């Protein structure tokens, strides 16, 4: 196992398990869709109170992203209250936005109380954060961390002005950074740290395993949610919430697809429909189930932990590729010699590529610190308005995709369609 750039220096030599390939980001032989799955239907049949707090972290990341996009009625104080542990009595925004009927889960404290995102966020300096323009950071010309950037973006989004502030002057879309940076730390980092500890044998607690499951954001049963062939972005009927037990309501800890799980499904569906299966979702979910059973039975869960961890990291990397591809599609409509200007590329896509690139700094088994620095240099410090021609930026984005394809062993045609 290669060290990540900041936290992980261990080497792992793990066996391949019979229940599934250990992903190093390489294509696996996943299923052929929801009609005739080639893998068994598993269930994570363990107490949801063990991962209630990680469910709330997922829900709050979604909440803050929505509020940053629709700043009306959301002053800075509201952002900070939700971010710093004051959400217990606040209504769960996801249920309102998506019209989800729940029972006994009206406010965040109904699931788990006292969840303080700010205490969980990593405060290491962000890669090339000192290169950000003054409009995009509170620390002009100096290092900046996730907590500092989030607080700055909450301040901008919550500004009491006549017009909502949805972006910085350079094109940093506030809701993309508010949500996606929280997906990196605490969600991905916390889950990856737990799984890495299980993989190297330094963790054994079922509570910790369940927390990692909650951070990834899967429901208890995955198969009812999947339809790679016909579903919207891999979800059957396009539904992130499903009353699987037919009791008339949805349990947000067990019958809901949270953000990372949704991304794993969407990217797996794209590979499936490209004829080059790479089933990140089933690989991770089944590994979580099998690893939990191994712990219950007194067996070694390390291989299952590594499978889930590698599938998760690969999903993060594919997200960078996906949003790079979105920008490449925009650039294809331009004269290659023209200088990139505002409106030429999706600022949402640029922000997501940048934020997911930062996510990889909090755990990576495939990328070195130098490679991560190169990735951010190629994506840029802000959308390249007035700096690069369309052709020049396409070259940079292609190099970024190639770096990720090589590091993770992704199928080249999947990289093209992701």
| Strand residue percentage | under 5%
Order of helices and strands: HHHHHHHHHHHHHH
Radius of gyration: 21 Å
Number of helices: 14
Structural class: mainly alpha
Whole-number tally of structural domains: 1
Q: What low-confidence regions span 5 or more consecutive residues with pLDDT below 50?
A: 1-38
For this structure, the quaternary state is single chain
Shape: globular
Q: What kind of sheet is the major sheet? A: none
Head-to-tail CA distance between termini: 26 Å
Give a written overview of the molecule.
- Helices cover 47% and strands 0% of the residues.
- With 418 residues, it is mostly helical.
- The chain has one domain.
- Helix 8 crosses helix 10 (302-331).
- The model is unreliable at 1-38 (pLDDT under 50).
How would you briefly describe this protein structure?
By secondary structure, the protein is mostly helical.
Please name the defining characteristics of this protein.
single chain; 418 residues
List the helices and strands and how they pair.
Layout: H1 52-69, H2 76-83, H3 93-97, H4 117-120, H5 146-157, H6 174-199, H7 206-216, H8 259-273, H9 280-296, H10 302-331, H11 347-359, H12 369-379, H13 390-408, H14 412-417
Helix pairs in contact: 1-6, 1-7, 5-6, 6-7, 6-10, 6-11, 7-9, 8-10, 9-10, 10-11, 10-13, 11-12, 12-13
């Amino acid at each position: 196992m290669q060290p990540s750039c900041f936290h992980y220096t261990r080497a792992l030599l793990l066996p391949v398990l019979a229940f599934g390939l250990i992903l190093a980001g390489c294509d696996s032989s996943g299923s052929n869709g929801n009609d005739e799955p080639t893998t068994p239907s598993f269930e994570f049949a363990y107490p949801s109170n063990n991962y209630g707090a990680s469910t709330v972290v997922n829900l709050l990341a979604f909440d803050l992203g929505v509020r940053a996009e629709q700043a009306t009625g959301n002053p800075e104080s509201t952002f900070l209250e939700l971010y710093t542990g004051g959400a217990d009595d606040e209504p769960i925004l996801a249920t309102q936005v998506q019209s989800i009927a729940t029972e006994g889960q009206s406010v965040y404290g109904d699931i788990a109380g006292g969840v303080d995102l700010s205490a969980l966020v990593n405060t290491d300096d962000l890669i090339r954060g000192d290169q950000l323009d003054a409009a995009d950071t509170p620390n002009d010309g100096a290092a900046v961390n996730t907590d500092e950037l989030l607080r700055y973006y909450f301040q901008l989004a919550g500004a009491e002005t006549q017009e909502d502030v949805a972006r910085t002057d350079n094109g940093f879309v506030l809701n993309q950074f508010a949500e996606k940076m929280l997906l990196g730390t605490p969600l991905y980092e916390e889950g990856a740290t737990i799984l890495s500890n299980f993989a190297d044998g330094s963790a054994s607690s079922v509570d910790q395993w369940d927390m990692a499951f909650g951070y990834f954001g899967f429901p208890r049963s995955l198969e009812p949610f999947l339809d790679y062939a016909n579903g919207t972005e891999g979800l059957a009927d396009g539904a992130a919430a499903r009353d699987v037990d037919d009791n008339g309501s949805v349990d947000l800890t067990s019958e809901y697809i949270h953000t990372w799980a949704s991304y794993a499904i969407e990217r797996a569906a794209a590979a499936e429909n490209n004829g080059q299966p790479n089933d990140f979702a089933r690989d991770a979910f089944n590994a979580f189930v099998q690893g939990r059973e191994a712990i219950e039975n007194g067996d070694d869960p390390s291989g299952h932990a590594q499978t889930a961890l590698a599938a998760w990291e690969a999903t993060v990397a594919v997200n960078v590729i996906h949003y790079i591809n979105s920008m490449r599609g925009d650039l294809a409509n331009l004269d290659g010699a023209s200088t990139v200007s505002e409106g030429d590329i999706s600022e949402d896509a640029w922000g997501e590529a940048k934020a997911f690139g930062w996510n990889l700094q909090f755990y990576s088994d495939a990328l070195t610190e130098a490679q991560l620095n190169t990735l951010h240099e190629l994506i840029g410090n802000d959308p390249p308005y007035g700096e690069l021609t369309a052709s020049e930026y396409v070259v940079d984005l292609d190099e970024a995709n190639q770096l990720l394809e090589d590091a993770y062993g992704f199928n080249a045609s999947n990289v093209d369609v992701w």
